[in-house]
Amino acid sequence: MRFRLSLSSEPLLAPFLCRLAVLAALALGSTTAVLAAPFENTMAQRMQACMACHGLQGRAGPDGYYPRIAGKPAGYLYHQLLSFRDGRRHYALMTGMVDLLSDAYLMEIAQYFSSIDAPYPPPATAAQIGTTPELLRQGQRLVTQGDPAHGIPACVQCHGQALTGVAPDIPGLLGLPRDYLNAQMGSFRTGQRRAQAPDCMATVAQRLSLADVNAVASWLATRPLPADTHPASALSAPLPLPCGSVSDANEARR
To answer: Is 219 helix (H, G, I), strand (E, B) or coil?
Structure first.
């Protein structure tokens, strides 16, 4: 029989997450800091389990596949945690971390990481990722203009003109490695990653060719962050496609 740990279950949850943090640190060969400090039943210390993979303050893991979660819109983070828990996204470690957690506690986790205002790393260079000027121009065109002939909207229509996302539900696309962006677009194309129906990202990804995906990911990965990296507060125009993971808070501001 399944059960959920809620906010009232924190005495049970704290040692559970503490053990996860220690196990994650053991896997990374860095237990000293975890074992040396006594466990405090605070959100910051409980979330050390997440930072073992997602990096200090949730700034991103070092391998390019554990994305930045710091400063992402809370609604977006919440929907991703729900998707891991409820089977729309597939990664056993994440599912094991959140499988027993209640909706309310997942929202508290999302709000915690959303509130972290941490600097971004510098973008990759074209030489570092081995791309070409032609591919970058193709990526820029798709991100900023889309491809109307194939029903592909511009990324900026949903993710904001600055590509830093739109609160509370739409993530930014800058400051992410090309490999991660390619992997997520591939997962949407194949159905390994799904969002709440109607799944607008799956629709877009399935209309892009593999060359288009690589071009978009390469251009985004090489773009510098704007001075203001926070998500926009509202959409500037209606979404080009119906999107089940965008909440009424976004809809009301369109």
So the answer is: helix
- Measured between alpha carbons, how far is 170 from 200 in angstroms, rounded to an integer? 12
SS3 12: helix
Residue type, 239: L
Q: Which has the closest alpha carbon to 158: 176, 173, 148?
A: 173
| pLDDT for the residue 5 | 54
Q: How much helix, strand and coil, in percent to the nearest 5, is found in the chain? A: 55, 5, 45
Instruction: Answer whether 141's CB lies under 8 Å from 153's CB.
Output: no
- Separation of first and last alpha carbons in the chain: 42
- The radius of gyration computed from the CA coordinates of the chain, to the nearest angstrom, equals 19
Q: For residue 1, how many C-alpha atoms fall within 13 Å in the half-sphere facing its CB?
A: 1
> Residue 170 pairs with which residues in a beta bridge?
166
pLDDT by 10-residue block (mean), the chain, 254 residues: 52 49 46 56 90 94 89 97 95 93 97 96 95 98 98 98 97 95 95 94 97 98 96 94 80 41
Ordered by where they begin, the domains of the chain are 7-54+72-114 (no CATH), 126-251 (1.10.760.10)
In the DSSP assignment, the letter for residue 29 is T
Please report which helix (H) or strand (E) contains residue 179, including its range: helix 178-190
Residues 97, 123: Cα–Cα separation, whole Å: 30
Q: Which residues pair with 193 in a beta bridge?
A: 89
Closest to 47 in 3D by CA, of 69, 79, 27: 69
Helix or strand holding residue 8 (H, E) = none
> Is residue 21 within 8 Å of residue 49, measured between CB atoms?
yes
3-state DSSP assignment of residue 193 = strand
Whole-structure pTM over 0.70, yes or no? yes
